[in-house]
Every structure is written in structure tokens, then in C-alpha cells.
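Work Package 3 (structural annotation) set out to generate three-dimensional models for the target panel prioritized at the project kickoff. During this period the team completed the workflow that converts sequence records into C-alpha cells, so that structures can be stored uniformly alongside our sequence database. As a representative example, we reproduce one entry of 115 residues exactly as it appears in the project archive.
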Amino acid sequence: MSVIDDYLTHVEPSKRNELERIRTLAKKAVPGAEEAIVYGMPTLKYQGKPFLGFDAHKNHIGIYPYSGQVVEELKDQLHAYEVSKGAIRVPLDNPISEEMLKQIIDHRLRQITNP
């Protein structure tokens, strides 16, 4: 059992399913991603650097690209979500699309590979 699997056992089933979907999509986009818990939430890393954190809140799923620049660069495409400098709040009734998640990941991976 990975650290993320352990974390997910404590999340209510409906939210757990969405977190597992995000995790699966992210690992599909980055097959060699490492799993960790960073700042108390499930996080995927590439080349030892975090590229995607995700966790469940009362009314939304939080997605964290570990970069305010990613959120800023994609703000026009993220208009359906509430955002802050480093977070994307995805309503429980409007899951993030695979394409949008891939864009977030791609932007962050470019930062990691081209600092």
C-alpha cells in the first residue's frame, strides 16, 4: 500500500473516487511519477519535484500544481473554477476534465524540466 493509498482510506467514498480518478489521469500523463504526501496531501513528483497535489475539502477538490505561475498562465481556461495563487478549487459537481488536468501537469513539467 502506498502513502497515497493509505491517505485515501480516510476520505469519504464519493470524494475518494474523484481523487483516485485524478491520480490515475496524472499517472497516465506521467507514468514514472513518484507518490508522496506533501503538506499533508497526496502529491505526485517528477524528478523529485512535486508537480500535482490534490485533496478533498468539504465542498470542492483542491488541485495544487506547486506553482502560482501555472495557475496564472492557465487562468483563462480555469474560469469555471475558483482559483488562488497556487490552488484550483474544483466543485464536487463539476469534475475537472482530463484535458484540463493534462494542461496543468504539462505546464508544471515544463517548469521542472526547464527551470
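The mean pLDDT is 95.
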